[in-house]
């Protein structure tokens, strides 16, 4: 049974007038009459009686109208439920972040978002840039913020949020902290604490030493930024790190930033998600929120 025919019948039955129903449905009266006849032929029942110039529901028409009222009431309820689902801000978001944004940017953003939308729950996965990309690519994560530069498949949406600066930090005990400026020859003498070799921060360290033409001098490889900061604080070497990851330690004097006028390196953060995965209303709202906060 064609739902369109039932919709037309429902309007004619409601107004008991082809003229009024045609105005409401924006269908000509002859076309309306033809489609009612098709419905009657389809179900094998006469639905209207005509007395003079007026039409009235037949007994069969009254019976069918009771059902169509229920059908269209259910459809209306369904449309309302769909709209509510599409506009509801809540549920669980699976968020990803590479080491720096995952540890030092996203927790604060998530906290602010939850104050506005307390029904939202978050699962935050922190990993290196390639791991986060893989989890976005296979649909495990809804949205992520990745640090550094990475090649992405064409179905991955990538939007640069902002560029952090990479800084060289040292322990306050390190004698180089007393230098007003650090030159290239000074950097040659320093040993570095670096992130493990599959990370973007290690890649940026390699780019850094190649840019200023100094030899690799690594004292220690560590698996996360917090461990690197602890090692640097213990004067086990200096490190090249994003400013956002060390601003707290710099503010409270736990680390010192070396002044290296000859070196300027940016470290970008990008919003990514899989365009082949449907975004919920909550995901869209969080994406807009990230854009406004980062």
From TrEMBL:
Alphabetized Pfam families for the sequence: HTH_1, LysR_substrate
Keywords associated with the record: DNA-binding, Transcription, Transcription regulation
Domain HTH lysR-type, first and last residues per copy: 1-58
SUPFAM superfamilies, A to Z: Periplasmic binding protein-like II (SSF53850), Winged helix' DNA-binding domain (SSF46785)
Entries under InterPro entries matching the protein: LysR_HTH_N, LysR_subst-bd, WH-like_DNA-bd_sf, WH_DNA-bd_sf
Domain of life according to the entry: Bacteria
Any GO MF annotation of the entry: transcription cis-regulatory region binding
Database matches in Gene3D superfamilies: 3.40.190.290, Winged helix-like DNA-binding domain superfamily/Winged helix DNA-binding domain (1.10.10.10)
Family of the protein in this entry: Belongs to the LysR transcriptional regulatory family.
The protein, known as: LysR family transcriptional regulator
Native species: Lachnotalea glycerini
